[in-house]
Amino acid sequence: MKVHSPTAVSAPSGAPQQWHDIDWWRVQRNVRAMQLRIAKACREGNWRRVNSLQRMLTRSSSARYLAVRRVTENQGKRTAGVDRVLWDTPDAKWKAANGLKRHGYKPRPLRRVFIPKSNGKERPLGIPTMTDRAMQALYLLALAPIAETTGDPNSYGFRIERSTADAMGQLF
Predict the structure, then answer these.
(1) Range of 135's domain?
(2) In the chain, how many domains are there?
C-alpha cells in the first residue's frame, strides 16, 4: 500500500504549470492547425464556422501563450506603455498569458513619445501597454487566415511570408 505525503501535489500530465514548461512546438502546431481550419471554412464560405473557430482560437491557451511570446520576444519588449508594466520574467509572462481574457478587457490609452526625424523635427509615436499588444497579437492569430484567404493572390506588399523578391523568383 502506497502512502502519499500531504505536501506532494500532482499536476495534470499535459498542461504546463509554468512558462518554461510550455512545449512551443506543440503550441505552434495547435495554433497552426486551428488557423488552417479557419482558412478552410473561409474558402468554403461557412462564416458561422469561421466565427466559432476564431472564438475557439482566441480562447485557447496555446494562442494566448503564443501571443505573449510574440510580444515579449521582440525588439520592443523593453518599452512599457502608460502603466509602466513590463513582462520581463517568466512568472510575469505566465501570469499575463493566463490573464488574457476578452471578458473585462478594456484597452488603455497610448503613451505618447516624440522621436527625432532626419530633418531635425520630431514625430509622435503611440506606445500601447503590454496587455494591449498581447490582445492585438492574439486577435491577429485569428484574423490572419481570413486576410490571407480572401486577399489578392498577386499582392505582395505588407503580407506575411511574402515579398516582391519571392514573386520574381529570388532575383538576388
Answers:
(1) 21-149
(2) 1
Q: Does 54 reside within a domain?
A: yes
Query: What CA–CA distance (Å, rounded) separates 108 from 81?
Result: 9
The pTM assigned to this predicted structure is 0.81
- Tell which residue, 59, 29, 30, 31, has the closest CA to residue 144: 31
Is residue 66 within 8 A of residue 27, CB to CB? The reply is yes
What does the alpha-carbon distance between residue 56 and residue 60 come to, in Å, rounded to a whole number?
6
Q: Is residue 167 part of a domain?
A: no
Q: Is 158 helix (H, G, I), strand (E, B) or coil?
A: coil
Residue in this structure with the C-alpha cell 486576410, named with its chain if needed: 147
Residue 154 in domain: no
Q: Which three cell numbers stand for residue 26?
A: 506543440
Percent of the chain clearing pLDDT 70 (strictly above): 86
Dihedral-angle region of residue 104 (phi above 0 means left; psi in -120 to 50 means alpha; beta otherwise): left
Strand bridging mode 111-116 / 122-127: antiparallel
Establish if 106 belongs to a structural domain.
yes
* End-to-end CA, the chain: 70
Residues 27-54: tens digit of each pLDDT = 999 999 999 999 999 999 999 999 999 9
